[in-house]
């Protein structure tokens, strides 16, 4: 019985191999007859795909901003929360100033996750189908890694935004535009360019004040959302008696700064502990796999072992995702 199954499997493999070979030969013959430049064809296909994807991404970006302006999307929608999270990351990574957008960033990370998973599963497990399970895990891991890297700039940017908010609040009497214009040289270097763009949008490009403030909020990131909302209310309500809403901004910012620093220290301790535990677990597992061939074969070549490794990775990445979520939701 076993020999029969083996013979059928071998014959099936031979037939598939012959079929693939025939297709390759036919493709070569067609290319020769039609005198097609393979490199030029691949280049054209690649450019077309990039162009189509680029147009789709730009369309999504324009639709998002349009829906925000007309009020179709509110900050409670998950789409808005995800967009702001991605926007904060590209700002902190320095990609925003290079023209990157959240949807472009998301697409690139997805592509990298898929490619990395396919290559990794082929090299480690010799099983490409495992990429279906590993890809979401890889995506979450890459996002957490990028967010962790971005945190180096993130904290400095928050401090700069808070300082800018305090400066504007203390000079808000004659309006946001006047306050920014009169204090532009006092703005922290890290966010001064964003406020200069805001002034250009209002004075040169003739943006409506609400549109200009929303653009400023998008460039500064979600940290400035609450403050920008106050600015919009202050500007649209023509009664400047509303200046009182800025009286507590400085004090509240100081309280938030203290709480943020405390939260950051606790999260860093938890993250460091998890990293140490993860290193110990995978070092132990790697040592056993290196010492015992049976264990190595079970984890690398047996579907059950591969799934166990995937579950371990999922748990580990899940913990980092949770910590990242808390860090992203900081005060």
Structure description:
The chain is built from twelve helices and no strands. Among the domains are: 40-73; 170-247, no CATH class. The protein is an all-alpha fold. Residues 4-13 have low confidence and may be disordered.
Quick structural gist:
By secondary structure, the protein is an all-alpha fold. The chain is built from twelve helices and no strands. The radius of gyration is 27 Å and the shape is flat.
Distance between the termini: 67 Å
Shape: flat
Spans of at least 5 consecutive residues with low confidence: 4-13
Strand content: under 5%
**How many DSSP E strands?**
0
Order of helices and strands: HHHHHHHHHHHH
Radius of gyration: 27 Å
Largest sheet: none
Judged by helices, strands and strand pairing, the structural class is mainly alpha
The portion of residues assigned to helices is over 70%
Q: Whole-number average pLDDT?
A: 79
Total number of helical segments? Answer: 12
Key attributes of the depicted protein:
81% helix
Topology summary:
Blueprint: H1 2-34, H2 38-69, H3 78-92, H4 102-124, H5 131-169, H6 176-183, H7 189-203, H8 209-220, H9 225-236, H10 249-291, H11 293-301, H12 303-328
Helix pairs in contact: 3-4, 3-5, 4-5, 5-10, 5-12, 7-8, 8-9, 10-11, 10-12, 11-12
